[in-house]
Amino acid sequence: MIETAMNLSEEIMTLAQHLELEGWKKGWEEGWDKGWQKGWQKAKRETIVETANNMLAAGILQPGKIKEIMKLSDRDSAELIGMPR
Fold first, then answer.
1. pLDDT tens across 67-85, in order?
2. What is the pLDDT of residue 77?
3. Which CA distances in Å does 4 have to 8, 15, 16, 47?
4. 61 Cβ contact list (under 8 Å, min separation 6)
5. CA–CA gap between residue 67 and residue 53 (Å, rounded)
6. Separation CA 20–CA 7 (nearest Å)
7. Nearest alpha-carbon partner for 70 in 54, 55, 48, 53
8. Which whole number is the average pLDDT over 52-79?
9. Any alpha helices (H) in the chain, and if so which ranges?
10. Measuring CA to CA, how many Å separate 40 from each of 15, 44, 80?
11. pLDDT tens digit sequence for 24-37
12. Residue 66 to residue 17: CA distance in whole angstroms
C-alpha cells in the first residue's frame, strides 16, 4: 500500500512537472513571437524614417512627395521627420 502510494505520488509529480514545462515553453514562445514582431515593426519604421530623412536632406523630393511615396500618415510625417502636415 505504501509503495503504491509512493508510485502514485511520483507519477503525479511527473505530470505536474510536465505541465509546468509545457506552460513555460508556451509562454516563452509567445513572448519570443511578440518581442520579435515588436522589434521588426520598430526596425521597419526606423528604416522608413531614415530613408525619408535622407531624401529630404539630399533635396531629392519635396516633403509632400516623400510622404506620398513612403505612405506616411500626417501624424507620422510630422512626428517622425518633422515634415509639414
1. 888 888 887 787 666 655 4
2. 80
3. 6, 16, 18, 64
4. 55, 69
5. 11
6. 20
7. 48
8. 83
9. 2-58, 63-70, 74-81
10. 37, 6, 17
11. 999 999 999 999 99
12. 56
Q: Please give the Cα distance from 76 to 80 (Å, whole number).
A: 5
Q: What is the mean pLDDT of residues 1-7?
A: 65
- How is residue 58 written as a grid cell? 539630399
pTM over 0.85: no
CA angle, 61 then 39 then 85, to 5°: 30
Q: φ and ψ at 17, to 5 degrees? A: -65, -40
* Beta strand segments in 14-74, E: none
- The amino acid that residue 45 corresponds to is R
37-49: per-residue pLDDT in tens? 999 999 988 888 8
